[in-house]
Each structure stands twice: as C-alpha cells, then as structure tokens.
C-alpha cells in the first residue's frame, strides 16, 4: 500500500521526521510531496524545493530513504485543480496523511482515506518557530535533525532569513 504526505518543510524539523516515521509505519511506500515547489524564496518559504529535498534526504537513514520518493508539488489557486495536478505528478496512492481540513475534505470526496498525523511538540516544532529562532540568535539546533542542521549552517540561513 502507498501513501502520500504533503508538506512545505520550511525547514525540515524533528516534527516532520516523526510524521514520516508515523506514515511509514502504515504504508509500504510513501510519496513525499514538497508543497509550494513553484514559489520564489520569501519569508514563509525561504528554501527551494531542491534545498528542502536535500535537507530531508540528508536527515533520513537508508532504510527510510528506500521507502520514500520525493515529488515537487506546485501551488495552484484552485484546490480541485490542485489535487488533479497531484494525480499527474505522483504515482497511485491509497492513503493521504494530513491534518489539513481542506485536504481531508477534498480527498474524502474521492473516497480516499485520510489519516491524521499525531503532532509532536507542535508549539516548538514548527517551521515558523525554527526560522524565528534562527533570526533572533536563539537555540534552534535541537529542533532539527543533523542533516537539516548541517544544511542550514552551511547555507548561511540566518543571513538569508534576515534579507527576506
């Protein structure tokens, strides 16, 4: 059985890693959709789809990498067209992992099972919080996997975020 999990991963943090583990416990293969893949860097989406893919792959162990395929999912203004576009990008899937009410509604109308993802330390583990901590010179390193940490440090993220 195959599953789909879509997120922005701006940046990829420990909550995202736990969501991947949860989803992988329910399916054989997981299609990981990098949402907003067509967006230019901005305050809330500072990393390109390629950069997010690098963060994710550098944060996973080999057994997880074997079960995950990553796809770039662009934003569209029309939600129905958005899920139709997803059908043209990712292979067939049986389950969607999401906590988003709109996604749940759209896929339940198609009789696709939607499984909520348990949140891990939601107040701390959010991309917004990690970005805010980086900008304000506070401790953030403990909130991301080592692969993401290495990426953020080598790519001068603090300066990038301040510019955006």
Question: What can be said about this structure in brief?
Answer:
This protein is an alpha/beta fold and 164 residues long. The protein has 8 helices and 5 strands. The chain has a single domain (2-163), classed as HUPs (Rossmann fold, 3-Layer(aba) Sandwich).
Layout of helices and strands, plus pairs?
Layout: E1 2-7, H1 14-24, E2 29-34, H2 49-59, H3 62-67, E3 68-72, H4 79-89, E4 95-97, H5 101-108, E5 113-115, H6 127-135, H7 146-154, H8 157-163
Parallel strand pairs: 1-2, 1-4, 2-3, 4-5
Helix pairs in contact: 2-7
Let me know the average pLDDT: 95
Give the helices and strands as they follow along the chain.
EHEHHEHEHEHHH
Question: In the CATH hierarchy, what is the superfamily?
Answer: HUPs
N/C terminus separation:
41 Å
Instruction: Tell me the Rg in angstroms.
Output: 16 Å
The level 1 CATH classification is: Alpha Beta
Strand order of the largest sheet: 3-2-1-4-5
Helical stretch tally:
8
Low-confidence segments, ≥5 residues, pLDDT <50? Answer: none
Estimate what percentage of residues fall within beta strands. 5-15%
């Amino acid at each position: 059985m195959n599953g789909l999990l879509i997120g922005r991963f701006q940046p990829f943090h420990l909550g995202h890693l736990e969501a991947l583990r949860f989803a992988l416990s329910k399916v054989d293969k997981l299609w990981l959709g990098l949402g907003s893949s067509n967006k230019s860097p901005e305050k809330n989406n500072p990393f390109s789809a390629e950069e997010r893919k690098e963060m994710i792959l550098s944060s996973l162990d080999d057994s997880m990498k074997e079960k995950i395929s990553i796809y770039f999912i662009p934003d569209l203004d029309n939600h129905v067209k958005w899920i139709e576009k997803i059908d043209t990008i990712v292979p067939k899937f049986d389950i969607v992992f999401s906590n988003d009410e709109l996604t749940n509604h759209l896929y339940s109308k198609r009789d696709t099972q939607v499984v909520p993802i348990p949140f891990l330390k939601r107040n701390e583990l959010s991309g917004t919080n990690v970005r805010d901590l980086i900008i304000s010179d506070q401790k953030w390193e403990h909130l991301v996997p080592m692969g993401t940490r290495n990426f953020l440090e080598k790519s001068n993220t603090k300066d990038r975020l301040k510019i955006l």
